[in-house]
Amino acid sequence: MSNGPSQPPNDQPDWLDPFEQLANEQLDRGSSCDQVHPIVANWFDKLMDGAPPESRDSVLQANSCLATEVLFSSPEYLIESMLERASEDEIATWIEQILMIGRAFEISLRSGELDDL
Fold first, then answer.
1. By the 8 A CB rule, do 75 and 6 touch?
2. Residue 96's closest CA among 54, 52, 44, 50?
3. Which pLDDT belongs to residue 34?
4. pLDDT score of 14
5. Cα distances (angstroms) measured from residue 50 to each of 31, 47, 101
6. Sign of the CA dihedral with 52 first, then 110, 102, and 114 last
7. What is the C-alpha separation between 24 and 39, in angstroms, rounded?
8. What is the pLDDT of residues 9-22, one digit of tens each?
9. How far is CA 22 from CA 16, 26, 38, 93, in A?
10. More confident residue, 81 or 32
11. Residues 9 and 74 sit within 8 Å (Cβ to Cβ)
């Protein structure tokens, strides 16, 4: 099923290391999960109570295509485990929803809605 490399469950890709290091450095300078998490949780709750961001049909189609690419490039052990519990279409829809939430998050960051972060 997977076009990407298979990785053990507790192994994260090396390219994530700089992001994790930067986040840890920033959190040590005064921000903390205790401060950030309530803001993000409140934003997420409002998003889930409302509608997804307005999107052109082409953007919705691109998001769907991206979800398929993410699905097919996911680690095989992960996909096999999920396929024991859900269909490929259900997994792709879930990934598409995650991508849509990410898009809404980016829109909120750019619009200033999350400036308190």
1. yes
2. 52
3. 74
4. 78
5. 29, 5, 12
6. negative
7. 18
8. 556 677 877 877 77
9. 10, 6, 21, 31
10. 81
11. no
Closest CA to 110 of 53, 65, 59, 63: 53
42 to each of 17, 38, 104, how far by Cα in Å?
A: 28, 6, 14
pTM confidence score: 0.70
At a CB cut-off of 8 Å and minimum separation 6, what does 38 contact? none
Q: Indicate the pLDDT class of residue 58, thresholds 50, 70 and 90.
A: very high
With residue 80 as reference, give the H or E element that holds it: helix 76-83
Query: Could you write out the DSSP letters of every residue in 67-99?
Result: HHHHHHHS-HHHHHHHHTTS-HHHHHHHHHHHH
In terms of pLDDT, which residue wins out, 90 or 33?
90
